[in-house]
Write a structure and sequence with these properties.
This protein is mainly beta. The protein has a single domain, classed as Lipoprotein localisation LolA/LolB/LppX (outer membrane lipoprotein receptor (LolB), chain A). The protein contains two helices and nine strands; from the N terminus they run H-E-E-E-E-H-E-E-E-E-E. It has a nine-stranded antiparallel β-sheet with strand order 4-3-2-1-9-8-7-6-5. Strand 6 and strand 7 form a beta hairpin. The chain starts with 6 loop residues before the first helix and ends with a strand. About 20% of the residues are buried.
């Protein structure tokens, strides 16, 4: 199945200083996290992940991860045997956005994940929700996305 973006599109959208605010919800509660691009070159990117409070203040240990642009692209590589893709417009925390909704079934654990990628925002999905039947396993939402000035 086609990925939503090429490695080059992701690279062009993720300069040093790009910041995302992410909310994760699980049955155990809610967490906020700041993702910040701290280094980038032609081969890949280093992202710092920092837990935050609702005001954006750090509340835990930050961790850094380096990934190639191809690895980031391949995070959205799904098998046509277990996934579907549809183009749609969705109201999100970042506003109304056009994009693609991938629905991915995992027969091994009985979960279904929906990944919404905004056409104009190459990179991480804007919204992800994973369920097992009616049970919420995890939801991830981009609340804010901004570049340094």
């Amino acid at each position: 199945m086609p990925t939503p973006f090429t490695a080059e599109q992701i690279r062009d959208e993720m300069p040093v200083g790009l910041r995302l605010t992410i909310r994760r919800v699980t049955p155990g509660g809610e967490e906020l996290e700041r993702w910040e691009v701290v280094a980038a070159d032609t081969d890949g990117v280093e992202i710092e992940f920092t837990p935050t409070d609702p005001d954006g203040n750090s509340i835990g240990e930050a961790r850094r991860t380096r990934s190639s642009w191809v690895e980031l692209r391949d995070h959205a590589s799904f098998s046509a045997a277990s996934a579907t893709r549809e183009a749609l417009r969705r109201d999100t925390a970042l506003g109304e956005l056009d994009g693609w909704l991938y629905r991915v079934r995992n027969p091994a654990d009985g979960t279904t994940s929906e990944f919404f990628f905004a056409r104009e925002l190459p990179g991480a999905p804007v919204h992800v929700i994973t369920t097992r039947g009616d049970e919420l396993i995890q939801e991830m939402v981009q609340l804010e996305r901004r570049r340094s000035e």
